[in-house]
Structures are given as structure tokens and as C-alpha cells.
Design a protein that fits this description.
Blueprint lengths: L1 H19 L22 H6 L1 H12 L2 E6 L2 E6 L2 H9 L5 E2 L1 H12 L5 H19 L5 H4 L3 H15 L4 E3 H18 L8 H16 L6 H20 L8 H12 L4 H32 L1 H15 L9 H6 L2 H4 L5 H14 L3 E6 L3 E5 L2 E5 L4 E4 L1 H5 L46 H18 E5 L27 E6 L7
Parallel strand pairs: 2-8
Antiparallel strand pairs: 1-2, 3-5, 4-10, 5-8, 6-7, 9-10
Helix pairs in contact: 5-10, 5-13, 6-12, 8-9, 8-19, 9-13, 10-11, 11-13, 13-17, 13-19, 14-17
Bound molecules: protoporphyrin IX containing FE.
The site of protoporphyrin IX containing FE has 22 residues, from helix 6, helix 13, strand 5 and helix 19.
Amino acid sequence: MLLPTLAAICILTTLAWFYLAPFSPERTSPPRVPSLFPWLGCSPWYILNPCAFLARCHQRYGPVFKVLLGGWEIVVVSSGDVISSIFSADPRHLCNDLMHHEMFHVVAGVRTNYARLHDIMIHKLFPLVDKSLSRRSLGQTTQPFARVLFSQVKKFTQNHGLRAVSLMQLVQEPLYIATNVALFGSSFPLDTYKDFHSLDKSVPYRFSRLPFWYWPSSCARERLLAQIRDYLQRGEVADCDDRFALALMETFKANDIQGLDGSRLVLTFLWGLHSNTMNTLFWLLAFLLADPDALARVRAEIDTAVEGREGKFTGLEMLLASDPDELDDPCFAILTSAVMETMRLTALHAAVRKAECDFDLKQGDTTIPIKKGEYVLGNVRAAHMDETIYPCAHEFVVDRFAGRPYRKGQIQTNGKPFLSLGGGRHICKGRWLAIYEIKVVAIILLRLFDISPSPEKSAVWSLPRVSEHSIGVIHTQDEVSVQLRLRQHEYSG
Ligand code: HEM
């Protein structure tokens, strides 16, 4: 009894201290968040709710502050310009190996051989992703994507016509399967969505080393690794159009990556490929369903484009057969803006880097000194919630990014600091794929269905709660059920 009581007293005292003490930050530049514990620093509060902790510190100490978390001195920055300069910094000065290491460990359980896997990922896999998923060549890589996606969504019309379905599964499973076919070919283990989802749900807890019932997700990970290993061992690529899969197999062969190492590398990549995109897509639908006017505007735009009223497409089938470049079009200006707005609202923190030497970050006319061995972290959420840049920053404003003339071939930021997709040399290599995929899923679902809250739950739609332990982009643990009703138009099942 003594130990738990002491622990409870300790936690309550420190919580009270954190909330009530009249904080006077140490007179350092940047200000340092005071902490009671010598090595742990503020990690108990950070781990309990990273987002709320950073928001409180931002409010108290301003846009730049230093905090000790589990032995790491971290300089947190919240201004768009400074975060951009971290993204663009020379990796010899600010290095992001740490995040990659964590991803390998947390997602795929890598404990040995890290350096070799990391080397292949950075020097072989990322350039391959960059080339295959660039705006110009995306159409060759995604050829079967929309076809497979459509056939997966159609299954919901057959099996779930009148029943409640999980919004998460509705938006994510077809996307997962179609993306895997497009990138890895149809011989990839496609019936793995449930295991992937179970692993994905555990990742934020694994990152924070929080107590969690890990057993189901660990079993899911083992099954995924075994199936991916079989896929790599077979080495079959069904179709020579599967360019990405062919190049991947060749890269693995040339570098003698096989067995468990190969499957761990692919699983880590698979998580990077799906996790943010799936969660962003879920929130796009959730925001639209919570805002009937926004939903009506996006749907009207889709109907106009699909019905060929402005001469763009003559039906859903034609739209789905088009090159991704065709969807990067002013006829989808509001939908594109809705995707950008969702990315703005869902991005958390990024740009975690370790300083390899003493380094100055520029902030306007001043500099932020970073010492060798310190870490920097970009509080993207704070930058995106800056009311001076984004009025009504906490609200979903569907046309926020549709104010200026549409610029094809560019991310539609409307000239505002937009950090959800990184920047500089580490800009997200899958950004064109992610935007294209999210748009296609939204087009298919909103064209085919009226989606309403499941009557067993509530007649009024409210946004799902944000999980305190989200990473990358916000997550939810809420089960959201919806009912689908086929709309009356060209498609009848
Ligand atoms: C909505 C979906 C996505 C979001 C919000 C997102 C976000 C990001 C961010 C913020 C970074 C920069 C991280 C940093 O520098 O610290 C990044 C990097 C990266 N992303 Fe994405 N991403 C998404 C989808 C994808 C997809 C579909 C792929 C496809 C494989 C992908 C592949 C990559 C790669 C390879 C990098 C590392 C680039 C490098 O370090 O050179 N991402 N992503």
C-alpha cells in the first residue's frame, strides 16, 4: 500500500505544482520550462497528453521554449518560418535519424541491424518513392488504384446496405487494399487490414512507452511480418506494370535484404504509407459530416464534375480511369481545400531533429541558439492554430484554401504557412499520392452514398473525440458508426 500511496502523493503534488505554481521560467534564452525531476524533467506530463502539454507551455513561455524530457533537452519552436528552416536544414547539422530509429523499433520491432536497414531506407527506398510517386509519374504507379478502390467500396453496398458500418473501416479498408495493389501488386497479402489497424492503434502508445494491452497488436505485427516475408520470398510480381513492386524486389535482391529484415523494412514503410493518409481521410469525412453546408458544397462540386455539366468527365467510371493529374483541377477547388484544411487541423508536431553541432536557427531578425546534442521539435499544431494567420483557426472552414485562383501542380496553400507535409529536402515524398487518394475516396463515397449517423447511436452528428496519445496526425479511439443509403443516379450497384 505504501508505494502506491507515495506514488499518488508524488503525482498529485507535481500536478498541482505544474498547474498552480506562479511559473517564472529560468532566465535563459530560450526560456526553460522548470521541472521537478532531474532526468525525467517534464516527461510525465508530456507522456500523459503531449498536445495539451505543448499547448500549455506555448501559452506560458511563448513560441520558443526549452524542455527536458527523459534526458533530452528539447527546443520546441512554434513559428512557421522557424519550423520551415528546420525542415530545410542540412542533415549534417540537424539530423532526423532518431525518428527513423523510433519508427523501425516501434512499428516493426527492429532491435538489431538498424543501421543497415536505415541505410537502405534512406538511400534506396526513399529515392524510389520520390521517383515513383512524383507528380509526373504518379499516374503510372496508381493505374489500378481507382478500379480496385471502387470494387472494394461496392462491397459495402452489397453487404451493408441497411446495417450500420464503421466509418473508420468504410474509409480505410478499401484505401488500404487499393494502395497496396497499386504499389506492391496483387500478390501482396491484401487481407491484412485488421492486423494493420490493430498495430496502427498501438503505435502512439508504443512511441510513448505507455502501459497498454499490447498483446493483440504484437500478434497482429507477427502475422503481418510473416505474410510480408512470404510475399518477398515468392518474389512474384503479377504484372510488369507493377513498376514500384518490381523496383522494390530488385533493390532488395541487389542489397541482399531478405527474410525478417526485408519484412521489417516493408512493414515500417507500409506504416508510413498508410497511417497518416488513413487518419486524415477519416477526419475529412468526420469534419464534412459534422458540417452539412460544407458537405453540400463538396458534394455539389463532385456531382457537377461527375455529371459532365462543365465538360470535365462524363460519369464516375471516366473520372476514376483518369490520370491523377486530371483531379488536380479547379473543378475540385473546394474538395482540394477541404483536404488541405483537414491536414491543417490534424497535423501535430514534426521536424524532430538532433543537433550534431552548435547551430543557430533564424527567427526573423533574431537567432535561437541550439547546442550540440540538443533536440528541436516543430510544434506544427501551434503554427497552424495561429489566429493571426488562420482566423477561426480551430474551426473547419471548408473553402479556407480556395480563396485564390487554383494553381495546378502546386499544393494549394493560398500563400499561408502550411507544414503538414514537411518541407525542404525532407518534404513528404508521398504528398501527391496522399492528396490524390484522399480525393478519390471522398469522390466515390460522396457520389455513391448519403452517409448519416447510425440511428442506434444518435441522430445528431458530433465530432469524434481526439485521442490524447495521437502522433503525427490526430487519432480517435471512438467507434463511429454510420448508415449508408445509395443515392439515385447512374450507379445502381
Ligand atoms: C496525409 C498523409 C501524409 C502526411 C500528413 C505526411 C506527412 C509527412 C511529414 C510531415 C513528413 C516530414 C517529416 C519530417 O521531416 O520530420 C513526411 C515525410 C515523408 N513522407 Fe509523408 N505524409 C503523408 C503521406 C505519405 C505517403 C502516402 C507516403 C508514401 C510512401 C509518404 C512518404 C513519406 C516519406 C518517404 C517521407 C520522408 C522524406 C524524407 O525524409 O526524405 N507520406 N510525411
